[in-house]
Amino acid sequence: MIMFEKNRLNFFTLTIAGILFTGCVETLISVKVYPDGRYTMNFITKGDSSDVFNHDFPHPAGPDWNTHITKEKRDDDDIWTMSTQGIITQSYIFTSRNDSLTTLQHPIQVIRKDGYFATRYTLQNIFKGRQVFRKYPSFGRSLQESDSDSTRWLDEAFYYMCSQGLNDLQNDPTTAIDNDMAERVENHIHNTLARVSQKDLFDELENKQSFIDQMLKPFSKDLPIGYSTLLSNSTDVYEEELELTSDLQDDQFKYWVLLPGAITSTNADTISGDTLKWSFGLQQYINDDVVIEAASVVYSPQRIQITVLIIAGLFLIILYLAYKRRQ
Length: 327
Hints:
Elements: H1 11-20, E1 25-33, E2 39-47, H2 49-52, E3 65-72, E4 79-88, E5 108-114, E6 118-127, H3 132-135, H4 137-144, H5 154-170, H6 179-195, H7 198-204, H8 208-215, H9 227-234, H10 236-247, E7 251-258, E8 262-266, E9 270-272, E10 275-281, E11 290-299, H11 301-326
Parallel strand pairs: 1-7
Antiparallel strand pairs: 1-2, 2-4, 3-4, 5-6, 6-11, 7-10, 8-11, 9-10
């Protein structure tokens, strides 16, 4: 079976099940920027336990964050709510785990720029695009078409994982093989997957290591001992990447921002009073980034008044001196 640990369910089975039987989880992210440039962030995720506590959209954790979890009992299924709050004084990147290469990243940056007459604030939060149609277009179409054949993307997705795994092995001097041999192995994997039906491939992938062993058997005399195990292990991170994308398919996000002063620019979907609002899901960043942007300005009436008075005073002095000169 495709495992991250012994006795774990087949990953591809889990992913397909996730496409066919999706729950719904909603996350509200609210950001309030203070005049001194600090800002508070509040994350509220609500849904069933499998959606709230998975790793597709992690809440931040650490000494600067407080998390509170509640459960509302329902007849059909309990509703869980996870709420996390924190005060931030710098740019921040949210990731689910530091040891993963494919954790979601949501860098946020708030900048306060002081001027003599005004203080300007800018906020930018980027939700990194998943680039699904670049990596495995058929999987992307399966996410968009609920009545499609949910297994048709298996060969494409598995080839992407293997090719990326091969590339990683080639970039490591301790695992690299001859470039021509690596190209032959990749072509062989591609051709093998093209000849296998989706159903047969699904059955074969119940044991990923065994399937990779069989694919690389023609090269057994040319490859280093244990190379198929290295390749199998190198695909794990790309399995996780696909799993995260699959878990995000039914997540919905609401994003609210409150900035000091008057808004000068934003790409918000709506503005309600002094609150900027965005709403999006995986379909909005299935390929490209979703970028949250807003800017505001706070003018200093006192400094403006003083400047006006000084200019007016200088103007009167100039007029007086001009009058005296005429006299």
